[in-house]
Amino acid sequence: MTQLTLPAGMEINGAIEAGYAEILTPDALALVAKLSRAFEVHRQELLAVRVERAKRLDAGERPDFLPETAHIRNGDWKIAPIPAALECRRVEITGPVERKMVINAFNSGADSYMTDFEDSNSPVWDNQITGQINLRDAIRKTISLEQNGKSYKLNDKVATLVVRPRGWHLDEKHVLVDGKRISGGIFDFALFMFHNAKEQLARGAGPYFYLPKMESHLEARLWNDIFVMTQNELGLPQGTIKATVLIETILAAFEMDEILYELREHSSGLNAGRWDYIFSCIKKFKLDKDFCLADRAKVTMTAPFMRSYALLLLKTCHKRNAPAIGGMAALIPIKNDPEKNDIAMGGVRTDKARDATDGYDGGWVAHPGLVELAMTEFKKVLGDKPNQISKQREDVNVSAADLLDFKPEAPITEAGLRYNINVGIHYLGAWLAGNGCVPIHNLMEDAATAEISRAQVWQWIRSTKGVLEDGRKVTAEMVVAMIPEELLKVKALVGEGATYDRAAKIFEEMSTSASFAEFLTLPLYEEI
Ligand SMILES: CC(=O)SCCNC(=O)CCNC(=O)[C@H](O)C(C)(C)COP(=O)(O)OP(=O)(O)OC[C@H]1O[C@@H](n2cnc3c(N)ncnc32)[C@H](O)[C@@H]1OP(=O)(O)O
Ligand SMILES: O=CC(=O)O
Ligand SMILES: [Mg+2]
């Protein structure tokens, strides 16, 4: 095993495989250590603020727009100009940082490509470091792969790269600074910046990021401070880094202007991260006796609270000259069933047509097979224009009550309950085996969609409204009885695998325990 030269006070306990030392260089690790020392205390403070806020919400407090930042919401300001490479983002493909998928995504024909260390990635040590190797090679256009008789390499024209580091809640447990685990997000960001920022600038783009799962503008300020220090350390002009923030928590929806304002020198807009958003609503109002959402499949972008959120995001972005990027329909191409495939493709088309017609500048797709049809829907509205940021939505008026108008509440069905249990076990089992994104029942499932499934089961057990349409109350006993049955169905699809037994156990613990695990990936991370 290769020996690394580590900065004073840093320990690495992950295996150092071939090629890792090229990423974990002394200077790159020095940047990781510097940022960690400068910002770890504040990250922990902000995570503690989340816990305190959650307690107040559990006790019945309702979020509202912040009085102390009204001057920012009412002020007449814009974000700094967007670089040319980020002006046209009609279709953004997303996917884990796995080598083959990296090449396929770059070549997919999408305008941009969000490579993902978050929702679609299981953060096993190997995924984190080989992900960095893959991105380094892709940016330099030296990436290639021979697999299953196919040769993979990059086309001449590829998508613009945007990187999503892990959220504030996730640690990188394999790296300690002064005896403490560091932030996973800072680790992903710093390594990527160190190795690639200058190379990207030399090639006509730049270091562009997606920032996940934030709950407040103060969390965005932390990223901004990190950008400023990193640009100084690397000798880059301030404002070089650009970041799109995912509005994917109900609390962030009340601070969209403030988040853009904090990042105004570094902003490249907002994205409507719908799946984590739904999860966040369930998590934040899980104890509210009046809150209970219907079967997961019924909670769509046309649900009142989702529609309000999507329109407010769009209006807020365009008012500030910022791109508004739509989220992802979880539908993916269905092989060997043309009829079902037509329905799925129709679903994606409707989703993208809605976003484009509303005024969004682009939207996410999960699979290369969806790029063309999503592009067609955006081109129908945009024509030859790269975006429609000039389209102001002053007609949109969204109140706090609109954001909190949680419907539909019905139906909750046995099929919906079993679906959640089945998806939960299947996804957790795959994640434990190192795969963070899986097709399940013809849908893309990742950490955000799986969170909805497990959170609904927990909440239906506890809410008096958690009643199946045939009148039976959802109970812990009912769920515990269904888990082995659903585990058998999962195994019939994926085969035997110890991780699925473990997943079923963890799913049972999580659904029936008195306390609600903040993120399912937190207890899971201790297992990998
Ligand atoms: C809530 C959120 O955060 S959304 C963002 C996070 N989620 C994602 O990014 C979803 C990413 N998508 C995926 O991982 C995959 O599409 C899955 C798991 C849903 C389905 O994967 P598969 O069943 O392997 O798809 P399928 O077999 O149809 O793939 C066909 C080809 O497309 C490639 N492909 C599929 N999805 C992607 C992708 N997102 N990026 C790049 N290549 C892809 C496959 O690698 C495969 O390549 P090959 O023909 O060269 O072997
Ligand atoms: O990250 C995206 C989401 O929908 O969650
Ligand atoms: Mg998300």
From TrEMBL:
UniProt keyword annotations, A-Z: Acyltransferase, Glyoxylate bypass, Transferase, Tricarboxylic acid cycle
InterPro entries assigned to the protein according to its UniProt record, in alphabetical order: Malate_synth_C_sf, Malate_synth_sf, Malate_synthA, Malate_synthase_CS, Malate_synthase_TIM, MS_C, MS_N, MS_N_TIM-barrel_dom
Gene3D superfamilies, sorted: Malate synthase, domain 3 (3.20.20.360), Malate synthase, domain III (1.20.1220.12)
Signal peptide region: none
Entry GO MF terms: malate synthase activity
EC number(s) per entry: 2.3.3.9
Keyword Oxidoreductase appears in the UniProt entry: no
Domain Malate synthase C-terminal: 412-528
Residues annotated as the enzyme's active site: R164 (proton acceptor), D446 (proton donor)
GO cellular component annotations of the record: cytoplasm
PANTHER family, per the entry: MALATE SYNTHASE (PTHR42902), MALATE SYNTHASE 1-RELATED (PTHR42902:SF1)
Family: Belongs to the malate synthase family.
UniProt-recorded name of the protein: Malate synthase
Species name: Collimonas arenae
